[in-house]
Design brief:
With 388 residues, the protein is of the alpha+beta class. 41% of the residues lie in helices and 23% in strands. The radius of gyration is 21 Å and the shape is globular. It binds alpha-D-galactopyranose. Alpha-D-galactopyranose binds next to helix 5.
Amino acid sequence: MTPRSTIVERFRSRFGGDPRVYRAPGRVNLIGEHTDYNEGFAMPAAIEFYCWVAVGAREDRRLHIYSEEFSAEADADLSSAARQPSKTWSDYPIGVALQLEQAGFRLRGANLLIESEVPIGAGLSSSAAIEVATALALADQSGWTPERLQLALLCQRAENEFVGARVGIMDQFVSLYGEKDHALMLDCRALSFASLLIPNSVKLVISNTMVKHELASSEYNRRRADCEEAVRRLREFLPGIRALRDVSAEQLEQYRSKISEVAYKRALHVVGENARVLDSAEALRSGDIARFGMRMAESHRSLRDLYEVSCPELDLMVDLAHQQKGVYGARMTGGGFGGATINLVDARYAGEFKEKMAKSYQRETGLVPQIYICRPAEGAGPFPSSDL
Ligand code: GLA
């Protein structure tokens, strides 16, 4: 059952009173992986899986939070200063509340009921969805309307500082700015974007491997450190550079011997991936989906061989996808080490693709994949109670 029909009732029976409801979507990244924290380019789209937050005011300065997914409660006192993360789901909403307060948005106490449709551990940004939905709910019910960009940055900071994952800005940004039928061509340095229409004849098919390897978050932070090391070393020879965004393929080759082999491989991925995003945007603009698909295939190989964030299950899914009819491109999406692949599929073949992929993947691995046929959805916002 979708939360939209019952979230108000469940809020009433748990907390009493009439809540306001906000929602924020997960996302799928079409191309441009591990480029956001290198100040580069990415091309995510919001998807029709939302995290829903129903919120009502309290008289005190406490937050009472209930998660439907985890059937668990959490509680925080906004007046007491220091607070330690609990290493559970509640670090996301509480981290966001702390960031809003630190940025000067004094919050009222609130009851929150949270329910998310975004699959966890699938690389579809369930974390950004809960952060953004909570931030909108808390700010709005306290009478604040921060700029969307500021909200995105505060949510990212909550995840960086309170949760402890050094993620980039892509997920929070697209959750707030997503547009129906469009991908966003995101410039993660300028923090600006261009909307790119995804033609109706194409479906975004997301295929969840159903595995999430334990190393995901530690390896993620290690990749960031590799990139930072590359920049530090290259800066000795290229003093003008600030991030891998500023390094050209020629410069990287010229100074290859000055950096470690690992740092070189990571940098080579990032430099190539940025170029692929730019080319993919051009391809979309000129209606050349086949060219877009080629860039996706290259992106996957680069993530597998140079950035080393793929895994056998993701590689298998991509190989299987290339054997299906109507497929323009396939690659892993999100941070890696499990999670999902994104497939650009001719709409006429999407149903058949889903069926055949499910069978083949199950035959090879014994796992039943979840496969979703999607279109780009709209970003976060209040949800009018008339629509509930
Ligand atoms: C995760 C992070 C994003 C981004 C991707 C990789 O989803 O949250 O900021 O770095 O990995 O592209």
